[in-house]
Amino acid sequence: MTLVDRRILKSQEAIKKAFIELLSEKNLDHITIQDIADRANVGRRTVYSHYLDKYDLLDKLIDEHISELEKLCKSTAEMSFVDAFLVWFEYFENHYSFFSIMLASKGSPYFRSRFLALVIDEVKREVDVKAGKNKGLSQVVLVQFFGAAIVGIIESYFTNGIPDPPQVVAEQVGILLERNL
Q1: Is 1 a residue whose pLDDT tops 60?
Q2: Nearest to 155 by CA among 83, 101, 87
Q3: Which contiguous run of DSSP H or E holds residue 77?
Q4: How far apart are CA 60 and CA 103, in angstroms?
Q5: Are the beta carbons of 41 and 90 closer than 8 angstroms?
Q6: Cα–Cα distances in Å, from 179 out to 36, 42, 80, 99, 134?
Q7: pTM here?
Q8: Four-CA torsion 66, 148, 54, 37, nearest 10 degrees
Q9: Model confidence over 38-70: pLDDT tens digits?
Q10: Would 161 disulfide with which of 37, 47, 156, 175, CB 3.0-4.6 Å?
Q11: Cα–Cα distance between 117 and 96 in angstroms, integer?
């Protein structure tokens, strides 16, 4: 494992934080590399030394969070749905700015589609259409239904559609999945 200089990590974190702040203020099309550099208190060259452009920065942020969510899925695979969703919502809360921007109307459709694909892949592992209450149902329909429902609930949480605290939402989503999968 290679060690990355702390100054590089500090610059990258400042750039990502600045970018997320700017995304909360204005549309991606109106954000410049100079805006990012100014907000992060780094030079334009520093931004370009880490990212090709603002779209590359956005893609890398999305990849980073999707990768972290995949790791969470693996680490919670043996947990109940309730406990697993509590872990997810803790992660969402720790990265609230990013998720609220990505899942809000100004968000990235690319992020939403990647997030939905991740959720569908995870639900697919839990669906049993050969026995039990879902016997004979279409696996495709079930995973699309539950994937869209989960992403929809999480989107609603971030767009202020659900006033309950994250623990309550996580518990309720987990209970619904345990009842129906």
Answers
A1: no
A2: 101
A3: none
A4: 17
A5: no
A6: 46, 51, 12, 27, 11
A7: 0.89
A8: -70
A9: 999 999 999 999 999 999 999 999 999 999 999
A10: 156
A11: 21
* Count of other CB atoms within 10 angstroms of residue 20: 19
Question: CB pairs under 8 A, 24+ apart, for 50-58?
Answer: 50/8, 50/11, 50/12, 50/15, 51/15, 54/19, 54/28, 57/15, 57/16, 57/19, 58/19, 58/28, 58/108
Please name the residues in contact with 40: beta carbons below 8 A apart, sequence gap of 6 or more: 11, 14, 15, 17, 18, 19, 46, 47
Instruction: Give CA–CA dist 172/154, Å, rounded.
Output: 12
What per-residue confidence (pLDDT) applies to 122?
94
What whole-number distance in Å separates Cα of residue 178 and Cα of residue 172? Answer: 10
Distance, CA of 170 to CA of 45 (rounded, Å):
42
Quote the CA–CA distance of 126 and 63 in Å, as a whole number. 24
Structure tokens at 173: 């989503």
Helix %, strand %, coil % of the chain (to 5): 75, 0, 25
